[in-house]
């Protein structure tokens, strides 16, 4: 499975470890920041809290992943990855 990711992304073993670590740390950071922002808003109603959390995490994730990718030296990979992801979400052809 990991070799398939290496081939798909065109990276070596160490780069793959750095990319997967960036995904993990960026996602964890995003979840933590989302909870902190919700705490600041003081929203207690679950019908508002969970959709708001989902929106916050969706908006924060790209930023968190880009920031975390800088020390791991994978910023250019994640810029390309996010461009491709946003192109797919918008229905445009990824360049």
Topology overview:
Elements: H1 2-9, H2 13-41, H3 46-69, H4 75-90
Helix pairs in contact: 2-3, 3-4
Structure description:
This protein has helices spanning 2-9, 13-41, 46-69, 75-90. The model has no long low-confidence stretch (mean pLDDT 92). It has 95 residues and is mostly helical. It has one domain (2-90). Helix content is 81%, strand content 0%.
Concise overview:
By secondary structure, the chain is mainly α. Helices cover 81% and strands 0% of the residues.
Defining key terms:
mainly alpha, 4 helices, elongated
- What is the first-to-last residue Cα distance? 26 Å
Strand content: under 5%
Outline the low-pLDDT stretches.
none
For the CA atoms, what is the radius of gyration? 16 Å
Q: How many individual β-strands?
A: 0
Counting structural domains, the number is 1
Number of helices: 4
Mean pLDDT: 92
- Backbone structural class: mainly alpha
Globular, elongated, flat, extended or rod-shaped: what is the shape? elongated
Biggest sheet architecture: none
Tell me the helix content: over 70%
Q: SSE order, as H and E?
A: HHHH
